[in-house]
Amino acid sequence: MARLTFVAELDKIEHQYAQDTLRTIESSMEEELNKLSRLTGDWAIWDDTYAFIEDLNRHYVESNLTPETLANLHVKAILFFDASGSLRYYYAVDLDSVTRIMLSHSFLAHIQSHPELYRHEHGNGNIRGILAFEEHAFLAASRPILTSTADGPIRGAVVFLRPLDGQVLDVVAKNTNKRLHFSLHSPADGARQQEFARKLLDQNDKEYSGRVIFRDLCNQPVCSIGTQIPRIIHKQARRTLAIYAFSLLIVVLLAGFLFWHSIDHKLFRRLFALVEKASPIRGMEARSDPRRPRDEIGLLSASLDRLIETLDQAIEQRTRMESEIQEILECSPVALFLIDRETRTLSWANSKALELIGRTRKEAAGIPCQALFCPSPDGGCPALDEGSWSLETESVLPGKGEEPIPVLRSVAKLSFRGRPHLLEAAMDLRHQKRLETELDRAKKMEIVGLVASGVAHDLNNLLTSLVGYPDMLLSEIDREHPFYEPLVTIRDASRKAGIIVLDLLTLARRGVKGEDFIEVNDLVDSFMASAEFKSLRRLHPSVRFRREEQIGEAYCIGSVVHLSKALANLVRNAAEAIEGSGSVTIQTTRVELTEPRKGYETVRPGRYVVLSVSDEGMGIPREELKRIFEPFYTKKKMGRSGSGLGMPIVWHAVKDMGGFIDLKSEVGRGTVISLYLPEKEPPSREEPSTDRETLSGRGEKVLIVEDMEDQRILAEKALIKLGYQVTSVDDGARALEHLRREAPDLLLLDLMLGNGMRGDQLYREILKTYPNQKALVVTGYADHARIEEILRLGASGCLAKPYTIEQLARAVHQALYG
């Protein structure tokens, strides 16, 4: 009976532990596959990968596909398949030497024999499993290639291969706390199976021998991971049972001895006394009765001591486990509250929960749940009174002396310390809400930008002629001519209109991205010496303007016009914020961040030139800080200086330079706005030539492709006057026809052709026949991606509309001779 009850129950526990170990091996392998699948998804659902599968651009390979990258990810190979299932590109490394290698044709053929890896019918496709080849096994994951917003159509698939080696097995061994052995199976080692893994468990009196057999992508047994688990509990149980049986035997013998002793005391001693009295008569000697040893009692005591010691160890282990679980709950990023369902008060909360409600553990104990987060206005509990159990529902926590904190709540029933409780889990959503606000602001700016870019495009086409023709006429007449001054007025007014267009394009973020080297101190000095700044000082005579320079030369790359406009807007706003007297300070500093700096927005680590404008004005209310960079949001009087576009232009000018903005303001004390501009190395000191003869042509052939007739004629006349042989056409078809007859030295190409194909499409078509054809792109509107694409194809540069004759001459000369 003891064998069936005591030992059998312990055997069940030990057998369950062995099965749990095998399940841990299986779940650990599943988790490794999930990690690889998530990593594959990060690469597959990415705009860069979406473009790479089409054009196989070198920039993607150099930036992302390096031996160090794959070694850090512990990935053997990354394979890119297009939508038809063809292998477009792969990159493989030797993880031991961290060098690139080529995969064998047989291995590639083996991979391509699994079409489920590279054919996805749906955008949420997720194929993962084990792939065996020869004497090796790999974890394989495949995801469809989509855009970063998970949009289609599917352009193919990305396949990641991670070797099933010691590093992966070490992770599994760490989870099981057991030594493991790994072996590969041939296809004939077992029958087909539907589940991912099959667990086999054998046993003897000394140990359990268990292994998990895993299948590959074809549902064939491919490998196994096994372990041996000593039967410690079984051995101890049998030993304890033996000691128990032996002790029971001792007890029976002792009881028999006591029974014998009682009989001896009451019966045999009287008989012995009678014998002793009769011994002189019969000549008999009395003999003493020998005593039996009692060591069995000591064995029973030792067994009980060992049992008590085992119980003490179990209690200590349970206490340690409870302490570890408590530490895990305290470190959780999710706020956890335990609410007594009967008293409806707080019983326990972790550190994150106390942080959210702004109370100490002592202050929070016994607080009614309605005071913490219950949304019911009548004081009732939706969960207990109405049976409404919420899973991931957005709500708010009132906090303590702060704005309500948005959270994602979940509620569950459980028992705690013998009493019914509710477990409230709350995830802080403040960061997510900030991101949503930024996204909403970006969408608003995008809508305004679409309108602004359309207007700017039409104005640029008109201004090209208004700037170019006066410039051409001025070169033909002397300063004494009666039309000289009117032409200068027309040209200068057109240039100012061009600056306004640049503002619109900055707002739209669709202008030609500036790549000028800017010395920030020189830019500030130029602004403070400008007529605009002098006019500003006259408008605000009681405002003191100060300049503080704490660094020497400091360079960044961007648009001089846009950054100058941004500085002018900041200084103007600072001056207008001062009522009465006060000071405005322009300061330049240098900073190197080794970790992100949090502020109005988070500044990434790096070296920056910081251009700051501070004032002693009225300050900005906290509720308005979130909106000051929105288009058309202004507190100024419209028509005086408040167009509502100044701060959005600042924002986009800085973002086009890859920078960040920090803003600190206090009502009644003033405002400080700091522009963090990425610092660059100083450029070479070569000054561009302005000699008209140096920039003139020497009979080179130029083909102009421009659909706007007035701009086509202007460019043709200007280039002929500069000494070039010029031919002009108005669409791509005529350009291709001309190139078949005669290849020009330079192609002057409008990016946004209105007739037929676009400029970038035309240039791509020309390069198929004339791969070395030089080209100069002219545009008044284009997104940066399209401009960068045509520059990667080989175009020498980009000339923004409107342009002067000198700018055209310089750009053509640069395109021809570098």
Question: What summary fits the major beta sheet?
Answer: 6 strands, antiparallel
Rg, Cα atoms, Å: 42 Å
What is the subunit arrangement here? single chain
Proportion of beta-strand residues: 15-25%
Helix content: 40-55%
Instruction: Please state the overall shape, judged from the principal axes of the Cα atoms.
Output: elongated
Task: State the end-to-end CA separation.
Answer: 99 Å
Number of helices: 23
Topology at a glance:
Layout: H1 2-44, H2 47-55, H3 58-64, H4 67-73, E1 77-82, E2 87-94, E3 99-101, H5 105-112, E4 127-133, E5 136-144, E6 156-163, H6 166-176, E7 181-184, E8 197-203, E9 207-215, E10 221-230, H7 232-282, H8 296-331, E11 335-340, E12 346-349, H9 351-357, H10 361-364, H11 382-385, E13 393-397, E14 405-416, E15 419-428, H12 430-474, H13 484-508, E16 516-519, H14 520-528, H15 531-539, E17 543-549, E18 555-558, H16 560-576, E19 582-593, E20 606-615, H17 646-656, E21 660-666, E22 670-678, H18 692-695, E23 701-705, H19 709-721, E24 725-729, H20 732-741, E25 746-750, H21 759-769, E26 775-779, H22 784-793, E27 797-800, H23 805-817
Textual characterization of the structure:
The protein is built from 23 helices and 27 strands. The protein is an alpha+beta fold and 818 residues long. Strands 3-2-1-6-5-4 form a six-stranded antiparallel sheet, with helices on both faces. A five-stranded antiparallel sheet has the order 12-11-15-14-13. Strands 17-19-20-22-21 form a five-stranded mixed sheet. Helix 21 links the parallel strand 25 and strand 26. The termini are far apart. About 2% of the residues have low confidence.
